[in-house]
TrEMBL record:
The keyword Magnesium applies. It catalyses: a myo-inositol phosphate + H2O = myo-inositol + phosphate. It comes from Streptomyces bauhiniae. This is inositol-phosphate phosphatase. Mg(2+) binds at residues 80, 103, 106, 228. GO terms for biological process: inositol metabolic process; phosphatidylinositol phosphate biosynthetic process; signal transduction. It is an enzyme of class 3 (hydrolase). The lineage of its organism: Bacteria, Bacillati, Actinomycetota, Actinomycetes, Kitasatosporales. PANTHER family: INOSITOL MONOPHOSPHATASE, INOSITOL-1-MONOPHOSPHATASE-RELATED. One of its GO terms (molecular function) is inositol monophosphate 1-phosphatase activity. InterPro entries: Inositol_monoP_metal-BS, Inositol_monophosphatase-like, Inositol_monophosphatase_CS.
């Protein structure tokens, strides 16, 4: 069993391309053939009408679970759909084994409605630290990767988020009100102020990619499911960005974060958004 970060780094040096290939194949086999072709019986609700799951989600996650586990013996998987079926599965994020964190279709609502704003998210973490991430938007043919300490890349080109342009409003993607508590709503309402241009978020993974590319300045999110955030947060970090919770600490994929939290294209922007959230 792989049980130390050094060995995982060796795995990444030799097998990152294999992980990317597995993700591309899962999308090509299970996701893209169903895009804009979903039958009614292939779509179900989970917690409500805004929380959807499709056969593409389930089958892509199953395929990735099998292939990624085989690539890295001794690793375990935390996938969104597996956790929905058995919440105890989530405990592996806090365990000692290397863990693959998978969101097979991030932005399922967009996928169901025929919008190309969805992606597949995979992260590899160990003892609470995200070591590598893969973000694939198959319809847009965009593939972003990051390895801790080695940078963030989109289709092979290095990503540098950089600071926002001085003097303009900050572009901030914000959690949909359906996914927030009353306290979180109050905190998020503080972003509706001079110098900030908030909007509702889409796919979390694509919002993080937009930050890493310098297209969006920050996000303010109210939930902490690791499959939505692990891949994107590393991508943002490796592009020069930062993330903070309400207590001013970095977001932890193991949970227990003070919410909402922010991720931003640079540390100064993260602090500014965090300060606004604390005034809410």
């Amino acid at each position: 069993m792989i049980d130390d970060t050094g060995t995982i780094e060796e795995f990444l040096a030799h097998h990152s391309a294999d992980v990317e290939e597995a993700i591309r194949k899962a999308a090509a086999t299970e996701i893209l053939p169903r895009f804009r072709r979903l039958a009614e019986h292939e779509v179900d609700q989970k917690s409500g009408p805004h929380d959807l799951v499709t056969d593409a989600d389930r089958l892509a996650e199953r395929r990735l679970t099998e292939e990624l586990s085989a690539l890295l013996p001794g690793s375990v998987v935390v996938g969104e759909e597996a956790v929905h079926a058995n919440p105890a599965t989530y405990d592996a994020v806090r365990g000692d084994a290397p863990v693959w964190i998978i969101d097979p279709v991030d932005g399922t609502r967009q996928f169901v409605h025929g919008n190309d704003g969805f992606c597949t998210l995979v992260a590899l973490a160990h003892r609470g630290t995200v070591l590598a991430s893969w973000t694939y938007a198959p319809v847009r043919d965009q593939f972003a990767t990051a390895v801790r300490g080695k940078g963030a890349f989109l289709d092979g080109e290095r990503l540098f988020a950089g600071p926002p342009e001085p003097g303009r409003d900050l572009k901030v993607a914000v959690s949909h009100p359906d996914y927030t508590t009353e306290d979180q709503k109050r905190a998020l309402r503080a972003l509706w102020t001079d110098g900030v241009a908030p909007r509702s978020c889409g796919s979390a993974g694509l919002e993080y990619l937009a930050i890493a590319r310098g297209e969006t300045d920050a996000v303010a999110f109210s939930w902490e499911a690791a499959w939505d955030h692990a891949a994107g947060l590393l991508l943002v970090e490796e592009a020069g960005g930062a993330h903070l919770t309400l207590t001013g600490e970095p977001f932890r994929i193991t949970g227990g974060n003070a919410l909402p939290f922010t991720a931003a294209r640079d540390a100064a922007t993260a602090r500014r958004v965090g300060e606004l959230l604390r005034t809410g």
